[in-house]
TrEMBL record:
UniProt name for this protein: Multidrug export protein MepA
Topological type in the membrane: Multi-pass membrane protein
Gene Ontology cellular component annotations, sorted alphabetically: plasma membrane
Gene Ontology MF terms in the entry: antiporter activity; xenobiotic transmembrane transporter activity
Residue ranges of the TM segments: 12-36, 51-74, 95-117, 137-159, 166-188, 194-218, 239-264, 284-310, 322-346, 358-380, 392-413, 419-443
Major subcellular location class: membrane
Entry keyword set: Antibiotic resistance, Cell membrane, Membrane, Transmembrane, Transmembrane helix, Transport
Length: 463
């Protein structure tokens, strides 16, 4: 089997760098979609701050839509990597074919559904009378491009898992560069305002989707390309079962944002929209850290799954170790940079002095526990790659549930809406500690069971 990288034989530290860094860069530039939109939106004359709040309200809904691409893409790619580790290429090919069908079906259903319920969704997510029109305009246009968004996200997993992280990074870069160019053209040049930001994003996702489809369909380098047929309800069920954990992890982020926006509106009084604008800026900055972290942990999932399929415990352990070291290095750098960078970052979004002052403080609070958060990301995604999805889901939901509880409790203690921002570091530190303990308890036994299953399977094949 020829791939860009040999996941079963190449040096593990080298593979972690080759897989994680392009995926990390891809995640970083991917988040620029929303940040660039928000940056330009915040500077629209006369109503920029309100439009920015509207875009912030759309953020979790957009995340919810794209998480369906992760549901299929990550679930299918993990299964495909394991089958490739077992050298079962026929089954791997069938998994990609069924995943493509699932992505198409989800795109069609979600487009219709979200267009029908978008008004109610926006109210749930904290839209006020002043921000609703801006949020509704953005979400309507974005939803129309759901097919391109889901395909771009979902298919990229199948490119990365076959050892082509640079191609996966290129898929994302194409869309991001296009978005950077088109945003000012549509928002200011054509005077389309927030609608222009949404149009630019949809066009960018169309280009990313087209590139990913073309690579998987026509490239002679890729071992498993796009094919049709061999559809199976059992295969689709397995894809969704594996992908459900990371899907729910991403989708549940919306609960955190809903809770935060709701509490800020309730306890912020007349300053509610002002506080949501601040939270939107803070969350945008946090994405500059968590998205590359997700790239590191997610980029090494293919390496972990492949060697898990081959029952190579040492390579799985080494992949986890070096991924964690890389994530620690990144978060340490970002922790230091955050002490100096925020004020310059915030200026990209707003010129309002009061919003800027509060955002600098909130970013400092939000990022206090980002170094230990590396443990949460790497270990939870590692468990997912090893088909330990229930454990991974439980650990992630613990962190987010604890966060939501803190969001509602902290303002009651201090009687100030801004205490909501302390929920992030407290939840991060607590959850990272719990995840580390659980991983150390389950990893060895889980891999021993996998080795036993692999030995039995090898005996059966030999007979």
């Amino acid at each position: 089997m020829k791939t860009g990288n040999d996941l079963g034989r190449d040096s593990v530290p080298s593979l972690v760098l080759k897989l994680a860094i392009p995926t990390m860069v891809a995640q970083f530039v991917n988040v620029l979609y929303s940040i660039i939109d928000r940056m330009y939106i915040g500077h629209i004359p006369e109503y920029g701050d309100l439009a920015l709040a509207g875009a912030g309200i759309c953020g979790p809904i957009v995340t919810l839509l794209s998480s369906f691409g992760t549901l299929v893409g990550l679930g299918g790619s993990i299964q495909m990597s394991i089958r490739m580790g077992e050298r079962n290429m026929k089954k791997a090919r069938q998994i990609l074919s069924n995943s493509l069908l699932l992505l198409t079906l989800f795109s069609a259903v979600l487009t219709v559904l979200f267009l029908m319920i978008k008004g109610q969704l926006l109210r749930w997510f904290g839209a006020s009378d002043q921000t609703f029109a801006y949020a509704n305009t953005y979400l309507t246009i974005y939803t129309i491009g759901t097919f391109f968004a889901l395909m771009a996200v979902g298919l990229n997993y199948f490119i990365n898992c076959q050892g082509f992280p640079v191609i996966g990074m290129t898929t994302v870069l194409i869309g991001t560069v296009c978005n950077i160019i088109l945003d000012p053209v549509f928002i200011f040049g054509l005077n389309m305002g927030i609608a222009g930001a949404a149009v630019a994003t949809v066009i960018s996702q169309f280009l990313s989707c087209s590139f990913a489809l073309a690579f998987l369909a026509f490239s002679k380098k890729v071992p498993i390309g796009i094919s049709f047929g061999q559809y199976s309800g059992k295969v689709m069920e397995k894809i969704l079962a594996i992908g459900f954990s990371p899907f729910l992890i991403l989708a549940s982020d919306n609960v955190l944002l809903i809770a935060t926006n709701t509490v800020l509106q309730k306890y912020g009084g007349s300053q509610g929209d002002f506080l949501i604008t601040t939270a939107t800026i803070v969350q945008s900055y946090m994405l500059l850290i968590t998205s590359p972290m997700l790239g590191i942990s997610g980029g090494t999932q293919a390496l972990i799954s492949f060697n898990y399929g081959a029952a190579n415990t040492k390579r799985v352990r080494d992949a986890e170790k070096y991924s964690l070291l890389l994530c620690f290095a990144f978060t340490t750098v970002m922790f230091i940079v955050t002490r100096f960078l925020p004020v310059h970052f915030i200026r990209l979004f707003t010129s309002n002095a009061e919003i800027s002052r509060l955002s600098v403080w909130a970013i400092g609070v939000f990022t206090f526990a980002i170094i230990p958060l590396s443990l949460q990301y790497v270990l939870v995604d590692g468990l997912t790659a090893m088909e330990r999805t229930k454990t991974a889901l439980s650990l992630s939901l613990f962190r987010k549930s604890f966060y939501v509880v803190l969001v509602f409790i902290l303002p009651l203690i201090r009687k100030e809406a801004t205490t909501v921002f302390y929920a992030q570091p407290i939840a991060d530190l607590t959850a990272s500690t719990v995840s580390t303990i659980v991983f150390l308890l389950v990893f060895r036994k889980h891999m021993e069971r996998r080795e036993a299953v692999f030995r039995e399977s090898s005996k059966g094949t030999a007979i």
